[in-house]
Amino acid sequence: MDIIVENIVEEVDNRTTTEPLEYPMSTLEAIVTAIALGIIIVSTIFGNILVIMSVFTYRPLRNVQNMFIVSLAVADITVAVLVMPLNLVYTIMAQWTFGLPVCKMWLTCDVLCCTASILNLSAIALDRYWAIHDPINYACKRTLKRVLLMIAGVWIVSMIISAPPLIGWNDWPEEFTEDTPCMLTEERGYVIYSASGSFYIPLFIMTVVYIKIFEAAKHRIRVKAKAAANLAAMRKSPDTASSTIPLKSIQTEISTIAVTDDSSSSSTHKISDDKNDASTSKDAEAVEENNCATNGTEKPEATAPRGRTLVPDGNPRLTATVRHYMREKQKICLLKERRAARVLGIVMGVFVLCWLPFFLMYVILPFCENCYVSNRLVNFITWLGYVNSALNPVIYTVFNMDFRRAFGNILCRKR
Fold this sequence. Notes:
This protein has 415 residues and is mainly alpha-helical. Helix content is 73%, strand content 0%. The protein contains 14 helices and no strands. The protein has helices spanning 2-18, 27-57, 66-93, 99-133, 135-141, 144-162, 188-236, 247-255, 263-276, 281-287, 291-295, 316-364, 375-395, 401-411. 29% of the residues are buried.
């Protein structure tokens, strides 16, 4: 009798650790879940369609580098159309009723589309780094052909990562019933392979690249601030009070400063910054105040801003003008440096917050036989990763004036 009881207890314990029983969703929970996940699906499709329409219909956004944004939006739309709806049904019904072939294709699309979304983020990061690290040369290299080749490479690599389970690198059951779960393969070799290519290598690339972008931003901003401070100090120095600083050099310096006395000139220059590189607006605006240094096609004019009359050295009016511009430029430099830190923090923070929990779970569970994660928690972590596709249109466009205007034109178009 004792042996029988012991065997029963052992069997129950094993069942608890490997196949725990979970209560199905109540009607209220199912309705709330369907509404919440439905909102995520609709907002993902809507937001990314807006991004694509903005790039192709709003003239300031029609540039080569924004093709990366379009590719990212296409990847996120495929996640919302091919992956999320079936996951929503599966989450609500708590069983897979579509058969093994559909299960295999759905899981393959899941890996393919999510990987393409993540790799597009990496491509955008690399494009930003090259544009900031070597702006003049990269402006010549950044052709439509080069960008399209990079985008094609992103999708080809995504296919290479997602395809192996279809050709046998999997642990899927040969017999599939309605009670068989439709889940990603837990074949350990493939788990390491796919997790590395889909997340950990792109995460490493993005981390290194964004650190370099931020360091470059700080360096350029501080160099400009130091140059402005040196010129202002030179104007105040008694040793140079009686000497003459060439008027042309002062005019050139002033012409590269973003702030003028009137607010309209300031806003006009801000708009030209946004138009310079819409896809890289968040960090490019924080790094480069003058678009001449970014695209390498324009040269600063050696004339004073419109409405400003410069007079020879020694005139109090000129001295006050130079000092005013220097002070304003220093303020802008500090603001841009703080903005660079904040924006890059948001980009990396949102990406890591959305995808790191999933890929930790994805890698750990196949190697931990006694680990157990409830289906509800698995669904939550999975959908947290999907949410990144809904947030991408926000975090990659909300800081850009041209995208905001394009969205406004599309949504508020006068009939």
